Amino acid sequence: MDKKRIVVALGRNSFGETFPEQQENVKKAAAAIADLVEEKYQIVITHSNGPQVGMIQTAMTEFARLNPDDRTVAPMSVCGAMSEGYIGYDLQNAIREELLNRGIYKTVSTIITQVRVDPFDAAFSEPSKIIGRFMSKKEAEAEEEKGNHVVEEEPGKFRRIIAAPLPIDIYEIDAVKALLDADQIVIAAGGGGIPVLQQGTHLKGASAIIEKDYTAAKLAELVNAQTLLFLTAYDNLTIEKGTPNEKVFEQVSASDLHTYIKAGHFPAKTTFPKVDASIRFVTADSERKAVISNLDKAKSSLAGKTGTTITA
């Protein structure tokens, strides 16, 4: 296992919900990555795409609605690919610029990444990820007629809800490894990757979104990284925040985290995937560690000075 190989998972605070906001926010992410380059890490970056893929799906749906004769709605797999491309474009350029400003030349590449999922994953019968724009009841009924799932998020306002299966394998992993071995920076599996179903030699895009935290752990496993770093908007993993029972974790074992999970401390839609993915990653190999930290404190968190370090 390479002690200087790391997978960095960037949260949505590294981007934004508009084009100008994203271009500004990625500068902070680029500075954090450049700090790790200076520490001689080999780096694979993955990232959130929640607002972006929702925006793309909404735009493509509206485009199809305005051109019903010759346009069909873009599948979620296509929307995911679009988000990987445009987020990667902003991120790799920001990192390149930051490195050059520090006198470092290193190629940064974005790989459009397909991730294998199981067609029998229970998530397909229990969809949990809300995406896209609000719809009327009539529009929601039309979606259900197509076989899609919808949920009434507010009275009279409906949105699509899709599956979030677990990642099984990453098809472009050999390309990621080759670039890492060449000491280049790789951006891969953005938004959890494009979920695909293997049908013989054909890869069919699935109507799903993969939770990026689980893909980050799978990516770290497959590239033989020792460290999985989640960069977020908060400094530490914390439970019961703002109460007399508040607990801030600095060093914590996977077995202790299991106890807190059973007690229901980590919200299913936000913190739990990071915690669960971290546990899966570190328990598979005692030399591994996972770190959850603020984006602005990436370097110090790897030294154990800030953030939360999770070990087996």
Automatic annotation (TrEMBL):
<dbReference type="Pfam" id="PF00696">
    <property type="entry name" value="AA_kinase"/>
</dbReference>
<dbReference type="GO" id="GO:0008804">
    <property type="term" value="F:carbamate kinase activity"/>
</dbReference>
<comment type="pathway">
    <text>Metabolic intermediate metabolism; carbamoyl phosphate degradation; CO(2) and NH(3) from carbamoyl phosphate: step 1/1.</text>
</comment>
<keyword id="KW-0808">Transferase</keyword>
<feature type="domain" description="Aspartate/glutamate/uridylate kinase">
    <location>
        <begin position="4"/>
        <end position="291"/>
    </location>
</feature>
<dbReference type="InterPro" id="IPR001048">
    <property type="entry name" value="Asp/Glu/Uridylate_kinase"/>
</dbReference>
<dbReference type="InterPro" id="IPR036393">
    <property type="entry name" value="AceGlu_kinase-like_sf"/>
</dbReference>
<dbReference type="InterPro" id="IPR003964">
    <property type="entry name" value="Carb_kinase"/>
</dbReference>
<comment type="similarity">
    <text>Belongs to the carbamate kinase family.</text>
</comment>
<keyword id="KW-0418">Kinase</keyword>
<protein>
    <recommendedName>
        <fullName>Carbamate kinase</fullName>
    </recommendedName>
</protein>
